[in-house]
Structures are given as C-alpha cells and as structure tokens.
Amino acid sequence: MRQHSGIGVLDKAMSVLYAVADEPCSLGMLCTKTGLPRATAHRLAVGLEIHRLLTRDADGSWRPGPALSELAASANDTLVDAAGSILPRLREITGESVQLYRREGTVRVCVAAMEPPTGLRDTVLVGARLPMTAGSGAKVLLAWSDTATQRSVLAEAAFSERVLLEVRRRGWAQSVGEREQGVASVAAPVRDAGGNVVAAVSVSGPIDRMGRRPGARWAADLLAAADALHKRL
C-alpha cells in the first residue's frame, strides 16, 4: 500500500509518477489509474514534465523522465549498490533478464534490473510496481513476510500457502507463465546482516529457453547471487 504524506498536491503528483512506472500513459489512462479529474491529472503531468520527471512519447503519452534517473544516481542505497556488482555476473551466467525486487506493502518494486544484449527478453523497468499475486519474486517476498500480508495476498494469488511453505523449505521459488504468459522465472531471498529477507533476486525469460522447471537449471546460481548480495550488505 502506498504511503500518504498528508500533503495533497504532493501525493497526487506521486500517484501520477507511479502510474507511468509500468507503462506509458495517455491523459485518459492517467485519470483511470490515479482517479484524478482530467484537469488535475493534466496540470500535474505537465508540471512534472517541465521538471523533467516525466517525458512524452511521439504519441503524446507520458513516461518516466530523465530527472528520475539523475536523482536515483545520487541516492545512496546499499542494496542497489551491491546489485550493481552482482547482477551483471548473474546475467552473464544465465543469458537472461535479471531483477532485484523489494516489497512495499502488498506490491513488489523492481529496484535494479539488467537485460541480455540480444534475443527475446522479459523487460521489467526499474521502478515498476508488480502485484504479489504471481511470479517467483512475489513468492519469495511473500514467503518471508508477516502473516497479515500473506493472508491479504493469498486470497487472490495464483499460488497457495502450501507453495509458500515449500519456498521456505527449499530456499527459492519458480514460476511458469504466472505473471505473464510465456515467461518463466526463478527467485531467491536476499537477507540483510541480521538475517531478515529484504529483497528477492530473480532471473526471468521465455519458457522456450528457461524450460518448465527453471529452478532445476538456475536455482543454484540464484542462491549464489543472493548470498553474494547478503555478504555485501
């Protein structure tokens, strides 16, 4: 669940930024995704565009702007810093897309990602907010989350509580065609210095390449990457 600051215009502006994180949005889509009146959504989007926090495609749709990357580059995030050293090697080993997710309430947020240089890929943009109801990364983050969050998500999830028990037992998760048709993935938990699960590192790609038992192929490499991240934290 997204936090609210109590500053109305700021919260509305943030809702516009989050709306375009997953996909470019026309004005109509912005209104649908944020619930804002058309005039308000347009005014905020134009203001964010002036500050380069949003930019427009050739068809007029808004997407994240360059200022977001510039601000992110100056942020000090030890997890993301560690990912910069670990994810390139994981991508090299697997030849697939790799991601790092954090949980925020009942959604997961991609905080780092790298794509293979060629071929079909499962592109997840940094900043993308994905549901916790499907996918290997979601299973990992939910398996070690609090009971209330688990109950809330499991009511609509593509997997059961028994699956989460299995994830905790073996230490990793896999999915085939859950989040997106034709895509498979494997994920492992990343722990901080205190042993708490703070993220999920994931590799994903077409089922044709990953196979229908992707864990058998890549789980060991995911666990090694997760351990390397843990040591850097």
TrEMBL record:
Q: Report the domain of life of the source organism.
A: Bacteria
- Any single biological process term in GO: negative regulation of DNA-templated transcription
One GO MF term on file is: DNA-binding transcription factor activity
Keyword Transcription regulation: yes or no? yes
Q: Which InterPro entries match?
A: GAF-like_dom_sf, HTH_MetabolicPath_Reg, Tscrpt_reg_IclR_C, Tscrpt_reg_IclR_N, WH-like_DNA-bd_sf, WH_DNA-bd_sf
Q: Which UniProt keywords apply?
A: DNA-binding, Transcription, Transcription regulation
Q: Which is an annotated Pfam family here?
A: IclR_C
Q: Membrane-crossing residues?
A: none
- Start and end residues of each HTH iclR-type domain: 7-66
Q: Where is the IclR-ED domain?
A: 67-233
Supply the name of the protein: IclR family transcriptional regulator
